[in-house]
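Supplementary notes for students who missed Thursday's class. We covered one full example, reproduced here. Read the sequence, then the structure, then the short commentary at the end.
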Amino acid sequence: MTNALPPDAAERAHALDTRRSFIVQAPAGSGKTELLIRRYLALLGTVEHPEEIVAITFTRKAAAEMRQRVLKKLEEMGSPLAENPARLRIQTIDSLCASLTRQMPMLSKFGAQPESIEDARDLYEEAALATIALVEEPADGKVPNAVASQIERLLDHLDNDVGRVQGLLADMLARRDHWVRHLRRMGRADLEAALVAQRARIVEEARALYPRADPGDVEVWQALAQSLLTKEGEWRKRSKEAQAYAGEGASREPLRDILQTLQALPPAQYSDGQAEVLEAIGGLLPHAIAQLKLVFQARGQVDFTEVSQGALLALGAEGEPTDLALALDYRIRHLLIDEFQDTSISQYELVARLTEGWEPGDGRTLLAVGDPMQS
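Structure (token representation):
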């Protein structure tokens, strides 16, 4: 008795065409990593040096598992590479970024390579507290400076709870990769426009998962979410429709997730008080980043976001590649990325830099596999 081929067997075989680039979207457990490994092995037969192929993922555990699976296949094939695994460039994206900053320390602005740490919460807290301490620094000895005023406004909004302000700034520093590029566009009008756009995008996602609902504004969808989910985000037991979805298990988790998002959506406009607080936060964030960089320097440690941003500097601006970028462009011919939905903004830009100038048919390829629903 033979095993039946999966319904998408033709598409899987198509993705093994080593002359072309592909983006593969599939749910968890569908064999995306196995497909990437098969392509990696196929590419080894097309390159002069195995180092020309780079396979990256997002955790050390995943990278180690991928390496072991590749080595097992190579051993089964009797490949001499099985005896020289150091030539296999299978690594985390963070280790790739770190290697770039090591190669160009001046351009990455790191100088001596700091230690990369996975949990930098203590550093964020220290930088946040140092930012709050700026409230004691007057501009001219007579009146508080703008930074002090912004800190006072934020403290007033949070009932003078320094711990809450510190936690808020620390949380923002941890997620700075999402907003640091937009500091100049953090005025009230820009933020409200972003809210409107985000609300519209979420409604479109909901319509794709729940096509039976009539098109409508956010409030209509929020009412639907309320009718199907409890305040805790669970399917309502007294709703036959909700229980029908609940009975479908994991296949309906994306719908529940988007309905929960709809439940938690803020209004499309800020109150005047909220706008003032947002203005204060926007004004403080550059100072918080500056304090974080001082903490990094004093500790000799950085987080992965800093490493990613340093790697981007080392590669140069779009259209203005550095010598390192040109060298890598020559050495890397094939890039394979697992769990692509987990890329941060800096990491996404890193991939764009690494593949800048690649053209169809020039012998260089990209394979990205992932599940957007897990993003």
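Commentary. Strands lie at 22-25, 53-57, 89-92, 115-116, 301-302, 316-317, 320-321, 334-337, 365-370. The chain has 16 helices and nine strands. If anything here is unclear, bring it to office hours.
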